UniProtKB/TrEMBL annotation:
Cross-referenced InterPro entries: MCP, MCP_dom_sf, MCP_transmembrane
Compartments it resides in: Mitochondrion membrane
Bilayer disposition of the protein: Multi-pass membrane protein
One Gene Ontology CC term in the entry: mitochondrial membrane
Solcar repeat locations: 1-79, 89-175, 187-282
Function: Mitochondrial transporter mediating uptake of thiamine diphosphate into mitochondria. It is not clear if the antiporter activity is affected by the membrane potential or by the proton electrochemical gradient.
One Pfam family here: Mito_carr
Name of the molecule in the record: Mitochondrial thiamine pyrophosphate carrier
Domain of life where this protein originates: Eukaryota
Biological process (GO), any one: thiamine-containing compound metabolic process
Gene Ontology MF term list: thiamine pyrophosphate transmembrane transporter activity
Family the UniProt entry places it in: Belongs to the mitochondrial carrier (TC 2.A.29) family.
Length: 293
C-alpha cells in the first residue's frame, strides 16, 4: 500500500535525478522544472500509468528489502543483547545494527532496484515492455553484472542512512515519550508515525547525494531510452560520476529531486515504522494471550 502511494513521487524523483540540465524554466533544454510542471508533462506525454512505471519491481523491492532488513535488525540487536554488555536500546547499537541490516538487504534486492530505476527512467516508446523482457534484454546485451550497477554508492550510503534512520527514530521516540507521554494506544501510534517520518527526512537529506549517484550509474548502458529527456552522460564509476556532476552541475546537482524524495521518505518511513511497531505490538499481545491460557 505504501509503495502504491509513493510511486508517483518516486518516478518524479528519478526523472529529476537523471536530468543533467538544471531544474529551472530558465535553463535551455531542461525537460523538467519542478514537481507540478513534471506532473503535468509526464501526464500529457505518457499518460496516468507513467506515474506507476516500475511499480511491479518496486513492490518486490519494498517487500524483499523490508523483510530482510527488519529480520536482520532484530537478529543483530538480539545478538548484541546476548553477547555484549551494551544496552540493545541504545542509539549507537541501533545505528550499527540498522546499518548492517540495511547492507544485507541492499545486496539481496539490488537487481530489483536496478530494474525499478530503468522502468521509471524510460519514456515512450518503451524499451522494456515488461519485467521478463527487461531481465532477458539486460542480461543478453549487458551481462549479469549490470544488475548490480550502482551497488558501491548504495552500500556507502545505505549504512549511514539506515543506521541514522533507526538511531534517529529511537532518539525521537524516547524524546517524545519524555516530553509528551502517550495517552493510550492511539497516541503511541501517532507518535511512531511522526517519529518515523522525521527520522526518514533527516536520514535521507544527509545521504541523498549517494542516492543520486546510484541512479546515474544504474542507467549506464541505457542511454538510448534517455535521448528524449535531454543531455546524456556516461560514467566510468563512482569517482568519475562525482567529478562530472560537481564540474557540470555544481554542488546543487547532487540534490536534484530532493523535494519529492523527502515527501516520499516522510510518508514511506513513517508508515513503515508505524506498521512495524503495530505488528510487534500485535505479536506481543498474541504471545501474552497464549501464555495466560
Amino acid at each position: 500500500v505504501t509503495r502504491v502511494l509513493v510511486s508517483p513521487l518516486d518516478v518524479i524523483k528519478i526523472r529529476f535525478q537523471l536530468q543533467i540540465e538544471q531544474l529551472s524554466s530558465r535553463t535551455p533544454g531542461a525537460k523538467y522544472h519542478g514537481i507540478l510542471q513534471a506532473v503535468q508533462r509526464i501526464f500529457q506525454e505518457e499518460g496516468l500509468g507513467a506515474f506507476w512505471k516500475g511499480h511491479v519491481p518496486a513492490q518486490f523491492l519494498s517487500v524483499g528489502y523490508g523483510a530482510v532488513q527488519f529480520m536482520a535488525f532484530e537478529s543483530l540487536t538480539k545478538l548484541v543483547h546476548n553477547v555484549t554488555s551494551y544496552n540493545a536500546r541504545d542509539s549507537f547499537v541501533h545505528f550499527i545494527c540498522g546499518g548492517l541490516a540495511a547492507c544485507t538487504a541492499t545486496v539481496a534486492v539490488q537487481p530489483v532496484d536496478t530494474l525499478r530505476t530503468r522502468f521509471a527512467a524510460q519514456g515512450e516508446p518503451k524499451v522494456y515492455h515488461n519485467l521478463r523482457h527487461a531481465v532477458v534484454t539486460m542480461y543478453q546485451t549487458e551481462g549479469p553484472r549490470t544488475f548490480y550497477r550502482g551497488l558501491t554508492p548504495t552500500i556507502i550510503a545505505i549504512f549511514p542512512y539506515a543506521g541514522l534512520q533507526f538511531s534517529f527514530y529511537n532518539t525521537l521516540k524516547q524524546l517524545s515519550e519524555w516530553m509528551i507521554p502517550a495517552e493510550g494506544k492511539e497516541g503511541g501510534n501517532v507518535k511512531n508515525l511522526v517519529c518515523g517520518s522525521c527520522a526518514g527526512i533527516i536520514s535521507k537529506t544527509l545521504t541523498y547525494p549517494f542516492d543520486l549517484i546510484k541512479k546515474r550509474l544504474q542507467v549506464g548502458g541505457f542511454e538510448r531510452a534517455r535521448a528524449a529527456f535531454g543531455q546524456v552522460r556516461m560514467y566510468r564509476g563512482l569517482l568519475d560520476c562525482l567529478r562530472q556532476v560537481m564540474r557540470e552541475e555544481g554542488l546543487g546537482g547532487f540534490f536534484k529531486g530532493l523535494s519529492p524524495s523527502l515527501l516520499k521518505a516522510a510518508v514511506s518511513t513513517g508508515l513503515v515504522f508505524f506498521s512495524y511497531e503495530l505488528f510487534c505490538s500485535l505479536l506481543c499481545a498474541l504471545k501474552n494471550t497464549d501464555s495466560t491460557k
